[in-house]
Amino acid sequence: MKRYTIITMSCLLYAAAVALFLEPHKLAAGGASGLAIMLSSLIPLNTGVIIFSINLPLLLIGTWKLGKAFAAGTVYATVISSAMITAIQEMQIPVPLSDPYLSAICGGILQAAGLGIVFRNGATTGGTDVVVSLITMRYKKLRTGLVFLMIDSGIIAMSWILNRNTQTAVCAAVTLLVCSLLMDVFIRYSPG
Fold first, then answer.
1. By C-alpha distance, which of 17, 28, 21 is closest to 169?
2. Residue 142 — φ and ψ, nearest 5°?
């Protein structure tokens, strides 16, 4: 019960990062959320719904490779975070920061906290988190934040190719850098 309470609160941090700081500025800072932010400008679906759709096949692979306990926490975190993103967006809360660089930093901090604490509690929010878990399980000496940085840099590059907006790509890179640097701190020192 305690584990799921912690995961729920972590998902709220992650959802706030996506819905309030990243998505309003179209900052596709990697992961399923970054892909969803890119796709939401092409497909008339809510970001939370797209995130959930991206996660389904990855959840199946994660369950197969990482076990049922991991799968249960990850399915829970994926569903809860997607629902929270959708709920926050539907509340139509005014965008807290108009400056995309400040939003990138705040979004990166909240994302690192949410993802790091979820990881610490033996789950992920799906998406590239599952891929990162598979890689760090096999190569134990790799830092989780570094693996995120490598994978999600590709998503930022795709975002730049798609939008040709250098400022948005730089802001997304700032988010990714902040998140990658802080994630290992949250994994190490958060409750779990």
1. 28
2. -75, 135
Q: Judge whether 119 and 187 are in contact, CB under 8 Å.
A: yes
**Chain length of the chain:** 192
C-alpha 82/C-alpha 142 separation (Å) is 28
Contact call for residues 88 and 15 (beta carbons, < 8 A): yes
Q: What is the DSSP string of 123-162?
A: ---STHHHHHHHHHHHSTTS-HHHHHHHHHHHHHHHHHHH
Looking up tokens 């994630």 gives 183
Give the rounded percent of residues in the chain with a pLDDT score beyond 70: 99
- pLDDT band per the 50, 70, 90 thresholds, residue 36: confident
Q: How far apart are CA 109 and CA 92, in angstroms?
A: 22
Under DSSP, the state recorded for 47 is H
Does position 14 have pLDDT exceeding 90, yes or no? yes
